[in-house]
Input
Amino acid sequence: MSSSAQNPSGLQLLRGLLRQYPFVWKNFRHYFQNLYRREVRRTNIVAPYAAVFYTTHKCNLECKYCTQKEPDVFSQELPTDQTIRLLRIIRRETDSILFTGGEPLLRVDIQELVEAAKREIGFRSVLLVTNGTLLHKRQRLLEALDGLIVSLDSLTPEPEIPLSKSGVVPRVLENLELAKSRMPSPRSITISSVIEEWNIREIDRILEFCREQGFVFSTQTALHEKMPNLRLRQNPEYQALVKKIIERRRASAQPINGTPKLLRTLLEFGDFQCFPTMFPRVYPNGDVFYPCEPLKKIGGNLLREGSFRKVFARGRKLYGDIPDCKGICYLFGNVISSYYVKDFWGLAGDSIR
Output
């Protein structure tokens, strides 16, 4: 590899940013806004970049690593009109939203919510995470999505375990074909895979499947009791898989979420500093976690407070500034928040190599 490819010039960096970031102005504005907050106001409470909205806690599967079937902090779903009101409040401070759950497609009004977010409220980026089992019953929402994220942890069907992701593989694969035919391009679809000790070889197969289909591949390790499995560090198969993922991303051999440096931190459990308010998590009733979900503290409710800014201020008053937790959760969003805030230019340069 040439030195210019390894170390892009300033002009190459800017051209790469313009080419690869559809919201380049948002990225620069957000970066300097947060630089001011950290360096002048001396706080790690950064502005929201994208909101994560939990539409429901309900799910039709029983993945053992899921934290949402019986969450530590529970909240009730709001009626459609109040949920749309909640989405309007979210839109005042961010133009990107991720619908998740539970399984969001279990909500009877999910198509109305997604369409309202995109067409009435004006979110520029509307993403949805699903296990993929019900897409054939909610096809209309595909037309309002900018990106679909389907979670998949195996390609080998295991019908004897009907409520696992492995047990529903045939249906998910059928629905992925359906989504591929309805979405603008295969890159509009991301396959999100959670790595455990039992499915390392399956994740390798999913990586190949994404390459063949043109889907984006995204991964992280599973959490149990909010903690990652550090035994994977000593697992040769896991280490080989991580090396393969990073090398493919470095060579741009296929679309993979994250930069090589970020993926190394994420999958090799390196040090990072989390800035959780960059991706605030909003529960179905409008409650917002402060500073993050694993700490189980609610900063306030958006319908009562009216803004993330006020929720974070209330949370800081109640619980103090964001603690230095030494980055123990290894969730993709939390790791990328570290790179975005602490190493924005390195992240940008790494992204265009």
Summary: Confidence is low (pLDDT under 50) at residues 1-7. The first helix runs from residue 3 to 6. The two ends are 10 Å apart (CA to CA).
